[in-house]
Amino acid sequence: MEFVTEEIASQPECWRRSVALAETAGGVLPRKGERVAVFGCGTSWFMAQAYANLREAAGHGETDAFTATEIPAGRRYDRVVALTRSGTTSEVLAVLSQLRGQVPTVGITADPTTPVMDLSDETVVLDFADEKSVVQTRFATSALTLFRAHLGADLSGAIADAEQTVTEALPDGATQRRQFTYLGAGWTIGLANEAALKMREASLSWTESYPAMEYRHGPMSITDSSSVVWFLGAPPAGLRDEVAKIGALVVSVPDRDPMAELIRVQRLAVTIGAEKGLDPDRPRNLTRSVILSGAAGVDTK
Fold first, then answer.
1. Burial 43-70 (b: 16+ CB within 10 A, else e)
2. Dihedral of CA 60/260/257/240: which sign?
3. Which end of the chain is more exposed for a tag (fewer CB within 10 A), N or C?
4. Nearest residue to 71 via CA among 47, 34, 31, 41
């Protein structure tokens, strides 16, 4: 647990460095008015979802987010952004190889010695946010901080909130619950998806995630007194009280930056994993990068 705990705690400083990087690397990131696709796998896909929503909401242009294997063929974009911590994920490299010469591509990575550097037309390296743990925490949020700063957001409040959430007590009784649902809206749907993934990876917990209003259309039936329902961002009117009446532990801090609140979820996942005797640095059945043998169009040498 040594690596992931330290990496989670380092996020406020990493975010400061991402904000500074946005000022110098901004010319590499998508220009206002461009039609953009951003893609990745796992955690990176969920950060892509958050960025796509934020970019469109800021009026910077149509932005789609995809997992690497599901990018529609033939759809035209002005720029494509690949988000990959390791720079070696086979599906990501295959897409970049296929797009070479067809559309400008940008790789966002933590490791400047990996194949993504050669396959992307331009790159931004967040080496200060690289990680030893298989469970991804600070690279994901640092990349999203980079995107948010480039869109013009003031991240000073988010960083101040993060300074608090790296040490703040976890929700009382949360570690004793057995089922966890994370809810978001707009850009925080991606954060909710990522929160659920962290719980699965680090603690093998029964976890789900939904757009907050969609939760009412069926998924709410799973909730009972053994559940935690955690809102990332402000909950829709009336939903928090409705969930509380079912008996769930409801967690909602609407005045806090949702990306900073994600840090508490990361910490909860690691804590529960440790209590189960798991090693959150080395999740079951997972590796730091998914490298497929014989992936078409990919040279990882």
1. bbbbbbbbbbbbbbeeebbebbbbbbee
2. positive
3. C
4. 41
Pair of tokens at residue 289? 């990068």
Residue linked to tokens 């400008």: 104
Instruction: Write the pLDDT tens digit of every residue in 269-289.
Output: 999 999 999 987 887 656 555
Task: Assess whether pLDDT exceeds 90 at residue 177.
Answer: yes
| Residue length of the chain | 301
The letter for the amino acid at 134 is V
- At 299 the pLDDT is 33
Q: How many CA atoms lie within 13 A of 275 on its CB side?
A: 13
Q: What percent of the chain has pLDDT over 90?
A: 89
- Please, are residues 143 and 87 in contact by the beta-carbon 8 Å criterion? no
Q: Residue 248 has what pLDDT?
A: 95
CA distances from 80 to 100, 126, 228, 294 (A): 11, 18, 37, 24
The H-assigned helical ranges of 170-257 are: 188-203, 239-246
pLDDT > 90? residue 296? no
What tokens were used for 254? 């609407």
Pairwise CA distance, residues 71 & 132, whole Å: 29
For residue 248, give the amino acid letter. A
Please, is 82 exposed, middle or buried when counting C-beta atoms within 10 Å of its C-beta (0-12, 13-18, 19+)?
A: buried
pLDDT at 283: 72
